[in-house]
Amino acid sequence: SQKISRVSQLSGIMSDAKTTQPNAMESTEEKPVHLPCNHSTISGNEYIYWYQQIPSQGPEYMIHGLKDNVTDRKATLIVAVARESSTLILPRVTLGDAGVYYCILIEGKGDENLP
């Protein structure tokens, strides 16, 4: 099994993100892993962004959403109906996925996609 650890804030991109995440998660290779994030104070125009940081590398954007579920080639973002929480699903993790996963809130305008 492998350890996938995460922290709640990505300094420099969002300095006061009001999110909470578990300190660590474990998963078995080739199995899906669900990474939860709570953000009960989210406002209506804040997008939920997820970043992945592999050891000795910088943070890399993964996926983001506002209120609808989003799926891309690497992950699925499930947003709760009231937007008080979200879950990042990695469908088949490998040892290469071990790292830090950041859930942050970024204010947006309309439907624009921020980097």
From TrEMBL:
Pfam entry (one): V-set
Q: Which UniProt keywords apply?
A: Cell membrane, Disulfide bond, Glycoprotein, Immunity, Membrane, Signal
By its UniProt entry, which InterPro entries does this protein fall under?
Ig-like_dom, Ig-like_dom_sf, Ig-like_fold, Ig_V-set, TCR_complex_component
| Stated name of the protein | Ig-like domain-containing protein
Ig-like domain: which residues? Answer: 16-115
Positions of the UniProt region annotated as Disordered = 1-36
Q: Species lineage, top-down? A: Eukaryota, Metazoa, Chordata, Craniata, Vertebrata
Q: Which PROSITE patterns match?
A: IG_LIKE
Q: Which GO terms describe its biological process?
A: immune system process; response to bacterium
Q: Which organism is it from?
A: Ailuropoda melanoleuca (Giant panda)
